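User: Fold this, then the next.

Assistant: Folding the first:
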Amino acid sequence: MVELTVRRTGRVVDERAARAQLRRQIARLEAQLSALQISGFPHGPVDPAVPGVRGPHILSLGELERTRDALVAGLDDVRSKAAARGERQAAARALLERMLQEPGRHKFVRVANRDLGEPGCGVWHVRPRLGLIGMLAGWWQVKLSSGCPLAS
């Protein structure tokens, strides 16, 4: 069966090609969205906020277009959040590099592994070597904590 629509202008339009094109676009956008979710997995769930449809039925052209537009908006939102997270991680890595090069200029600064995008609970911390004596003498070092605290 061929789906044909007669527009007000009197022209006959084949909706099958339009539906197929919209379905291909939606499939491509869903694949991109799932790839972004997989690549950003350990940093928490990402909600693209794509509205669902009301039960099983064949979507009209308008519903397909709305679904596509919602996917585009959700994909843009997820990309911007991933870019912002990447910028924060790059800034934390730059701070860690400066801490390692000059610990005396970053006294008591802490950078967590999760801020760097690394797994685990470790925290990089600038602290004085030999406690109070090291603090008075200006002996500073960067230490990485041993990891996650023990479960109580």
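Now the next one, as you asked:
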Amino acid sequence: MLLQMRRFGGPTATFTLGGLTFLTDPTFDAPGDYPIGTRTLTKTAPAAGTPADAGRVDVVLLSHDQHPDNLDTAGRALCATVPLVLTTPAAADRLGPPARAVPTWTHIDLPRPDGAGGLRVTAVPAQHGPDGTDHLTGPVTGFVLHGDGLPTVYVSGDNASLRVVEEIAARFPTIDVAVLFGGAARTPLLGDANLTLDAAGMVQATRILGARIVVPVHIDSWAHFTEGIADVRAAFTTAGLANLLQVPESRPGS
């Protein structure tokens, strides 16, 4: 695998690139019910580790802060302790430092501890549901990370739009690793419309991106995820792409 990753459940995973350790959408709370507006999201399984188990985190890549399955109480506490949180302008305003706004198609360059230059993080679009629902679900961002001698990594965030994936592929024609948020999430807010990619959409996204490796996250631990890893494996096998799918372990070295 081009990246050493550890998954913690839901959308939460760590990986190291260019000597920097990144954490995606931190969710470490216990299972239970989480009210959100007039709805309730239910977490069904504990995280596969604690924030301390994530080790030193240099950068949190936070797709959005308005939903507890992407940022919960323990995740917020962790975000306050790390050097940098990259996220949407709205989330940065709500969270305050060390959160930093990265508007869509803008980037920041991070110095690499490995001394090999910089690592560029570009905010890319993400659409958290079908067309015309952004005002209901709120702003979300994805990220593309790249640097000299490093694999190019796409972290999708909660995205349900293949058109958005096409826009990203047009700007970044080489994606080595695609960290795709799936689960075909659904809530009463939008009925039977998917808020994130389903397994078939993840296959299509992989083809659009030409990704060499696909890491599925956001496919477990919440009741509103209507698909899981078995659905993803089946879809990639049917498509003849099972060799691209890599599911990180939940413990280092396991």
